[in-house]
Amino acid sequence: NEKFNIFKFGDSVIDLGCAPGGWLQVAVEKTNSNLNDFKKRQGRVVGIDLKPILSIEGAEILVLDFLDNDFEKKIKELLKDKVHNIISDMASNSTGHKKSDHLRIIALCESAAFFAFDYLKEGGNFVAKVLAGGAESELQTILKKNFKKVINFKPKSSRSDSSEKYVIALNFKKNN
Predict the structure, then answer these.
(1) φ, ψ for residue 26 (rounded to 5)?
(2) Residues with catalytic annotation?
(3) Are 138 and 167 in contact (CB under 8 A)?
(4) Are 103 and 144 in contact (CB under 8 A)?
(5) Residues 28, 45: contact at Cβ < 8 Å?
(6) What is the pTM of this model?
(7) Which tens digit of pLDDT belongs to each residue from 142-161?
């Protein structure tokens, strides 16, 4: 967030795969979703995960399965408007087989991207954790058609031997 200024004051955020809550904490602070003074513009932060996590003041945390058939119905009930940012920090359980794990996380990222196309406001941002491994090029192509700028980024906090990186898609182009 420091490098790309993804979250802004008053933004709405959905964090898919929010456990343990690091992205939520940053989003709450940057969007002003924990402020009790309703005269000032207040953001909204919603975290979704299969696992329950400790509450984070200013964030709504839901225990839901993103891949469940009822997920979209539940989200439509929760949201009254589209959001500014969608973060996907989802990862499938590791099998220990690098190629299989890579394909599984790319499938989650692609599902999250298509979710973002339906729920992002024009100009919104999408960030997803991916594992480098070759199959991410189709995801890149899809994102480049729908966002003005797509960047691959490996944070300093990520181990050098890790294939983990983030794809950051900025400025959503609504319904191409």
Answers:
(1) -65, -45
(2) 129
(3) no
(4) no
(5) yes
(6) 0.90
(7) 999 999 999 998 776 665 66
